[in-house]
Design a protein that fits this description.
Blueprint: H1 24-31, E1 49-55, H2 74-82, E2 84-90, H3 96-105, H4 109-112, E3 133-134, H5 149-155, E4 159-164, E5 182-184, H6 193-196, H7 216-230, E6 236-241, H8 253-266, E7 272-275, E8 278-281, H9 287-309, E9 316-322, H10 349-352, E10 353-359, E11 368-370, E12 374-375, H11 379-386, H12 403-406, E13 419-424, E14 435-440, E15 443-448, E16 453-458, H13 474-490, E17 497-498, H14 519-526
Parallel strand pairs: 1-6, 1-9, 2-11, 2-12, 4-5, 4-6
Antiparallel strand pairs: 2-10, 3-17, 7-8, 9-10, 13-14, 14-15, 15-16
Length: about 525
């Protein structure tokens, strides 16, 4: 049996860092219409409902409210106008399972043991790629001893619901074993179950098949709506974890046709850059992916519309985010993350910087744009405090309560900026290599283990991470390196080790795994 959560909520550390980029002019224009409150603000609900949307592999720039001019996301654009848009929100890992563990526990993934996507080789002796290092071992399930967000909220009287992708362990460690009263679709591995099916029959043991051809995101939205309808009289926590927009690239024919026509009308063509061994997409123009993004947006809209119809809008916190950056260097490389460098599987901003929208009536001023850096561990203390649930005894404090940030309260205490931390001791399928990174204020330091090298970027002056200034800023490197080493030790982070079988004369294994994202493969896919 899991123990009930105890202890108090820590005070949030606040830092307003004004970082503006050209693409935010689009965002500010979209949000300005909703920037003023119309009349008195609604009262804050004593125990608000919570709806949490988590999208798989969505890049920050994949929403129109974040600057996309090809993908269409009207429902999420509306959510941004009605709530807060974060410019500097991060996942805790550039791949999925670790960041999902962080959201549900409020801990850096290294503390849970889940540091790679579940399904990757788990032990060094299972490693077959020709790489300089052997990746660290990792755990393939979220321990039942962890007090999840769902379990903590249940102690505060919430009904709990999960729909979609789980990817945090096999049967016996499914959502229903981790505090969720209802599980619609959540299973162990990533991607839709039984052959990655986005259309019925799904072959998913936790989701009954619908009519032939039924579309998965709409079906999961329907199940979420049903749960909300059945629990509208008491506090509820609905966690809608999309399978979209993860591969396989598969979309509704009507939406795919729409974006093929739009692509032709705009005269868009694929353009490519280079990131180490991988080609990286430079332009958003993939019709199938665009169709998947819009279908996801429509599913969000279906849930939001029902909240409106039931009169629950002012009583419900809505959170929308992603588990890692957009897929731009592998498996068809369907999106571009520019101006961010890299994508899923990389320590650069394209791999970890996320879209984050929060609507919280009575707390968030509509149309807010918040520049303070935040990370996936922060959802846990924020939503537990909002729901009147206590943090577990011994909670390490990896996340902070974001309510003061959402209210944009002035900073009340001086001190050094908060340090955000990433540690990925693995080789991703997308070309990334083992590394550790920290961000403190405007500075970001990356340690690459293969060459024991460091890269330092000032994200205010160089948000695209083009110029490594480590040699010119030795004191900054020294300070951030000390923070990095402290966090590696404090979180018990495991390190990669030398690979005795590595052969420098053979092709590097960094190029293996997950496809190459090159022009030839993509052209075949599009045609």
């Amino acid at each position: 049996m899991k123990k009930a959560a105890e202890a108090s909520v820590p005070t949030a550390r606040n830092l307003v860092i004004m970082i503006r980029f050209p693409f935010l002019l689009v965002t500010l224009g979209l949000l300005s219409a909703g920037s003023l409150l119309d009349g008195a603000a609604p009262a804050v609900s004593a125990k608000p409902n919570i709806v949490f949307f988590l999208v798989d592999d969505l890049g920050q720039r994949d929403l129109a409210c974040y600057g996309s001019t090809f993908y269409e996301t009207p429902n999420l654009d509306r959510l941004a106008k009605e709530g807060a848009l974060f410019t500097d929100a991060y996942s805790t890992c550039p791949v999925c399972s670790p960041s999902r563990a962080s959201i549900l526990t409020g801990k850096y993934p290294q503390r849970t043991g889940i540091t790679d996507y579940i399904g990757a080789p788990m032990k060094p002796e299972q490693w077959k790629r020709n790489t300089k290092l052997l990746p660290a071992p990792y755990g393939d399930r979220l321990a039942l001893e962890e007090v999840t967000m769902a379990e903590a909220l249940k102690t505060a009287g919430y009904a709990t619901f999960f729909a979609g992708k789980w990817h945090l362990g096999p049967e016996g460690w499914f959502p229903e074993d981790q505090g969720f009263d209802v599980n619609q679709g959540g299973i162990g591995r990533g991607g839709p179950y039984g052959g990655n099916k986005y259309f019925s029959p799904y072959g998913n043991p936790r989701l009954a098949d619908g009519p032939p051809g039924e579309h998965l995101p709409d079906r999961l939205a329907t199940e979420t709506v049903k749960f909300i309808e059945q629990h509208k009289e008491k506090p509820f926590f609905a966690y809608f974890s999309f399978y979209d927009v993860h591969t396989p690239l598969m979309a509704r024919p009507d939406l795919e046709s729409k974006y093929k026509a739009k692509k032709a009308k705009l005269g868009l063509k694929a353009e490519w850059g280079q990131e180490d061994t991988r080609q990286v997409r430079q332009v958003q123009e993939h019709a199938v992916y665009a169709a998947m993004v819009e279908a996801m947006d429509q599913a969000v809209g279906k849930v939001l519309a029902r909240l409106d119809e039931l009169g629950l809008k002012e009583k419900t916190i809505v959170v929308f985010t992603s588990d890692n950056g957009g897929l731009s260097t592998s498996e068809g490389s369907p999106t571009s993350n520019l101006p961010w460098r890299g994508g899923k599987g990389w320590m650069y901003e394209g791999g970890i910087r996320e879209a984050l929208l929060v609507r919280w009536p009575g707390v968030v001023q509509p149309g807010s744009v918040i520049h303070e850096p935040v990370i996936g561990t922060d959802f846990y203390p924020t939503l537990l405090a909002a729901g009147g649930a206590s943090l577990p005894q011994g909670y390490p404090g990896d996340g902070v309560d974001l309510k003061p940030v959402l209210k944009q309260e002035p900073k009340t205490a001086e001190g050094k900026p908060r340090t955000l931390y990433w540690h990925y001791p693995h080789y991703g399928n997308q070309g990334g290599a083992p590394g550790t990174a920290v961000r403190q204020g405007d500075w970001k330091l990356i340690h690459w283990f293969e060459e024991d090298s460091y890269e330092l970027y000032n994200l205010k002056t160089d948000p695209e991470e083009k110029t490594n200034v480590a040699a010119a800023q030795p004191e900054v490197v020294k300070t951030l390196k000390a923070e990095m080493e402290r966090l590696v030790k404090d979180t018990g982070s495991l390190l990669p080790t030398a690979n005795p079988a590595y052969d420098a004369a053979k092709p590097s294994g960094r190029a293996a795994g997950g496809g190459g994202g090159g022009k030839k493969k993509e052209k075949a896919k599009e045609e």
